[in-house]
Design a protein that fits this description.
Blueprint (H helix, E strand, L loop, with lengths): L1 H5 L3 H70 L8 H13 L5 E8 L4 E6 L5 E6 L6 E7 L5 E10 L6 H9 L3 E2 L3 E2 L6 E10 L5 E10 L1 H12 L4 E6 L5 E4 L6 E3 L5 E3 L8 H12 L7 E5 L2 E10 L2 E10 L1 H51 L14 H45 L4 H4 L4 E6 L4 E4 L1 H7 L12 H5 L15 H8 L3 E9 L5 E13 L2 E11 L1 H15 L7 E2 H7 L11 E9 L1 H8 L1 H17 L6 E4 L4 E6 L4 H16 L2 E2 L2 E2 L1 E9 L6 H18 L1 H19 L1 H21 L3 H13 L9 H4 L6 H7 L2 H10 L8 H5 L21 H17 L5 H15 L6 H11 L8
Parallel strand pairs: 22-24
Antiparallel strand pairs: 1-2, 1-9, 2-3, 3-4, 4-5, 6-8, 7-8, 8-9, 10-11, 10-16, 12-13, 14-15, 15-16, 17-18, 17-21, 19-20, 20-21, 23-25, 23-28, 24-25, 26-27
Helix pairs in contact: 2-5, 2-7, 2-8, 7-8, 15-16, 19-20, 20-21, 20-26, 20-28, 26-27
């Protein structure tokens, strides 16, 4: 053993010792450096993560702030009348120039008006600006025009289908919120990309909505911005809807949505991402109370940072992931290389030490001191190389290792500090946008609620509470919505869960809609509802349902009213001709035989309208409808088929029974009067007992029977009508009755004195008695007045006209009409109503004019009775040649001279 120990020389021992010390020191330095770097790297990774999140927040804020600012600028210019959108040239130039000057994700600018018009500019798939028009001139369709050099509309390039901006979510959201807001995410109708719109409402000075400005963005640019931001750090970033977990944008190059072959839009969920750390971070973020603060966690070898993004209508999460290997991989490489170089240098040093041990002992000592300094963490110490030998190489290597480590750490700390500042600025911008997403659900006018598989409410918007009459969302959440609002039908009978279309929709995985059911409010009342139900599907499994609904009670009421008016006469409430013609053929079956048809036609309606006005005529029609309806049973059909025509359809009614109905109708008309008109009606019927007679024959026979009744009773009806008018006038005024009799008597006597024929004598007798029948249109008060105002006198002067109209309506009085019409004309042309002169006035009218004036002067003067006749005759004498035909006036004076007239 002793000889064996001698084999190990002092030189060897020194070499071994040197080597051991070198290895220990290098290992210590490497371990200490690695531990300190690892600690510094973790802090650096956290700073990188925070800085990246802040940077993304700044970029995303700019992404959403730009459309809001564009809308605000447009709103200000329009409100201050700087831009007049009513001028097509100014409007086109403004939208086209503004869109041409904007770079970035905005693909179109528009305005939707309250009338449903739509104007603006868009960038097509080649990023070329085009103008949009949609108004009356385009027929409600969207036309796109190429852009001229002066920004005016050039050639039409696209003619799209019908489009109404008022139906778009961005228009409705802005109108409901009455403030700037972002729309829900939707699929662009041309480009394969998701889209979102910033909407700002426009109001006039009275606060009335005039339209909505829309700035529309493609979300593909948001994904590109995410990818650019995290590329430097080999990281990943996504934006996801906080409420649903659906992707908005991502840096992974994955599609955020897919359109199926049937045209349905399917959006990707966060759980579908290959990086599971995102789903873990999302679940933790949504399970905690809402906050705008940045949250940082480490999941599965990633530094994950979560921040909320809120704008009006937007409630999203921005999640970034930085791999922990970002810094560790490069340093581990360096450490491995350094260890290998150190081992190599140690071996060379050991061999060199054998040769030059004595000479290089001082150089080794210097190496040891520097090693000690490096092990202590002082990276500023270097070996002073005096010779270019192996130890010098080791010294150089050690110096290179120290330089590399110092440079790496110094540069890394500087980069981390710069990126931390940039990310912090971005974080502040994202915080301002987070809260606004919460307003999206509550900005819709349509009520929306969600249910789980048991039918319990999981969410609802403000419109749901308002329509159902609840005061708080706590009254609805967790409640079984079928039992709460859909438990019964309109008639109050229970609606079982097996009959519920909403549950069928959810469990069958298909959408459904209904407009024939009711929902029940909190106060126990029901309302007509239009609802759409869709299943909620996650990873191919139905997890619940979403129901949107609206109260259509008012719409249903208007539809019922329109349906009623389509089948009924507005004046009488009876069925109209359209309904009768539609229903009549349906009664031609044996179960309705014998089937009787009664035609009815009101007599004297035209005269009533002409004399007393259409209001009196309407009263006559309604009175007739009342009598006809009262004479029939409830299952009979009574229809007004024309102005004065009616048809009665009587089922299981024989001809004798139909005649009994006709008798009841005539009885009802017997004592009916409207104004001074005695109501009467012409009737005819026909009955079908079995096959062999068509409905057309039944109708024709009944109508012919009615006309036979009308023609057969024509004279009696006319005499009855004219006598009723005259009797009514005389009932109102006894004086008018006496006047008519006196004028008739004197006119006949004067006509005999003038030598008229027997036929003319008969005519003037009848005309004289009816000469004032037109006064039937005057009020009873006016009939008794002696002095008239100018307006009253003008009404009084119309009675010859009215009398003419009445007498021309009847065959037996047609020959009297002209004489009555002109009995107030004067010989000199100053009379009324036509101002006839001299012999233009009918001869009989000139006779009645003298007699009528004489009788009125005789009985309407304040003179004593014995002086009245002389006074009246004097008036006739003085008016001869001016008011009266001189020859007739003279004949009357001669006829009256020997007579002593008895005043009334």
């Amino acid at each position: 053993m002793r000889s064996a120990r001698k084999l190990v020389s002092i030189k060897s021992r020194l070499i071994i010792l040197f080597t051991a010390i070198l290895v220990v020191f290098l290992a210590g330095i490497g371990t200490l450096t690695y531990l300190r770097w690892a600690s510094s790297a973790r802090i650096t990774m956290q700073n990188i993560s925070d800085t990246l999140s802040n940077s993304l927040q700044d970029q995303i804020q700019a992404f959403f702030q730009t459309p809001l600012e564009v809308n605000q600028v447009s709103h200000t210019l329009i409100e201050k009348k700087t831009v007049d959108l009513s001028d097509p040239q100014i409007r086109d130039t403004y939208f086209a120039s503004l869109l041409s000057s904007i770079e970035g994700p905005i693909y179109s600018l528009s305005i939707g008006t309250k009338e449903g018009y739509y104007y603006g500019a868009r960038k097509n798939v080649e990023a070329v600006v085009e103008l949009m028009h949609n108004d009356i001139q385009t027929g409600g369709k969207s036309w796109y025009y190429a852009l001229n050099d002066d920004f005016s509309a050039g050639q039409r390039v696209v003619e799209a289908g019908l489009f109404d901006p008022r139906t778009r979510p961005w228009y409705q959201a802005a109108a409901e919120r009455k403030a700037p807001v972002f729309s829900p995410v939707y699929k662009h109708f041309i480009m394969n990309d998701l889209t979102i719109s910033a909407a700002t409402p426009l109001y006039d000075k009275d606060g009335e909505l005039q339209g909505v400005l829309g700035t529309h963005l493609l979300l593909i640019d948001l994904g590109s911005a995410l990818a650019d931001a995290v590329a430097l750090f080999d990281g990943q970033a996504i934006i996801v809807e906080k409420e649903t977990g659906l992707l908005i944008a991502n840096s992974l190059g994955l599609d955020s949505h897919v359109v199926s072959s049937d045209g349905q839009l399917h959006r990707s969920h966060i759980s579908e991402l290959p990086t599971a750390a995102f789903a873990l971070a999302f679940e933790e973020a949504v399970s905690q109370p809402a906050t705008n603060l940045m949250q940082r966690r480490e999941y599965e070898r990633y530094q994950i940072t979560t921040q909320s993004l809120s704008y009006p209508g937007i409630d999203w999460l921005v999640i970034t992931a930085i791999p922990n290997s970002l810094l560790f991989s490069h340093v581990q490489e360096t450490l491995v290389v350094t260890i290998l170089l150190t081992l190599l240098a140690g071996s060379l040093a050991a061999m060199t030490y054998q040769v030059f041990i004595g000479h290089l002992l001082r150089q080794v000592d210097a190496l040891l001191k520097v090693s000690e300094a490096l092990a202590a963490g002082d990276l500023t110490k270097r070996v002073n190389v005096t010779k270019d030998d192996e130890i010098g190489s080791i010294s150089h290597s050690l110096n290179h290792v120290a330089d590399a480590m110092q440079l790496l750490i110094n540069n890394l700390e500087q980069q981390v500090e710069e990126r931390t500042k940039a990310l912090h600025q971005a974080n502040r911008s994202l915080e301002e946008n987070t809260l606004q997403l919460e307003l999206l659900l509550n900005s819709t006018a349509e009520a929306i609620y969600g249910i789980d598989l048991q039918g319990k409410c999981t969410f609802c918007n403000r419109s749901t509470l308002q329509i159902l009459g609840f005061h708080s969302i706590d009254e609805v959440l967790g409640r079984n919505m079928h039992q709460l609002i859909h438990h019964s039908k309109a008639d109050g009978t229970p609606l079982s869960i097996e009959e519920c279309k909403i549950f069928h929709s959810m469990h069958q995985g298909a959408g459904i809609e209904s407009e024939n059911e009711v929902f029940w409010k909190a106060d126990g009342t029901s309302f007509n509802v239009s609802y759409h139900s869709f299943p909620q599907i996650r990873e191919g499994i139905v997890v619940g349902g979403v129901v949107s609904f609206m109260d259509i009670t008012e719409r249903r009421r208007k539809e019922d009213q329109i349906a009623y008016l389509g089948n009924h006469d507005a004046l009488t409430g009876l069925y109209n001709r359209s309904y009768f013609e539609k229903e009549y053929p349906l009664y031609d079956t044996s179960e309705h035989w014998p089937l009787s048809l009664i035609f009815a036609d009101i007599n004297g309606l035209k005269m009533t309208n002409d004399i007393f006005g259409h209001q009196a005529g309407d009263k006559l029609i309604k009175k007739a409808a009342e009598i006809l309806k009262k004479s029939c049973s409830d299952h009979d059909v009574v229809a007004r088929t024309g102005g004065d025509e009616f048809i009665l359809l009587l089922t299981k009614t024989t001809h004798e029974q139909a005649e009994k109905v006709i008798a009841d109708i005539r009885s009802g008309f017997a004592n009916a009067r409207i104004e001074a008109i005695k109501c009467s009606i012409s009737l005819g019927s026909e009955t079908k007992h079995a096959e062999g007679m068509s409905l057309e024959e039944v109708m024709a026979n009944a109508e012919n029977a009615m006309y036979r009744d009308k023609n057969g009773n024509r004279v009696a009806v006319q005499n009855d009508l004219i006598n009723t008018l005259q009797e009514t006038l005389h009932t109102r005024s006894r004086r008018e009755e006496e006047h008519s009799a006196a004028v008739q008597d004197l006119s006949c006597r004067l006509a005999l004195a003038l030598g008229v024929s027997e036929a003319e004598l008969n005519t003037i007798s009848r005309a004289a008695y009816l000469h004032d029948i037109g006064k039937i249109a005057l009020s009873e008060e006016l009939l008794h007045k002696e002095q008239f105002t100018s307006d009253e006198y003008e009404r009084m002067k119309q009675h010859p006209v009215v009398g003419f109209r009445i007498l021309t309506l009847f065959d037996d009085t047609l020959d009297l009409a002209e004489a009555v019409y002109s009995h107030h004309e004067k010989w000199d042309g100053s009379g009324y109503p036509r101002g006839l002169k001299g012999e233009q006035i009918p001869y009989l009218s000139r006779i009645m004019a003298v007699v009528e004036t004489y009788d009125r002067i005789l009985n309407r003067t304040n003179l004593p009775t014995h002086l009245r006749n002389a006074h009246a005759l004097q008036e006739i004498r003085e008016a001869s040649g001016s008011q009266f035909d001189p020859a007739i006036a003279q004949a009357f004076l001669e006829m009256m001279q020997p007579n002593q007239v008895k005043e009334r």
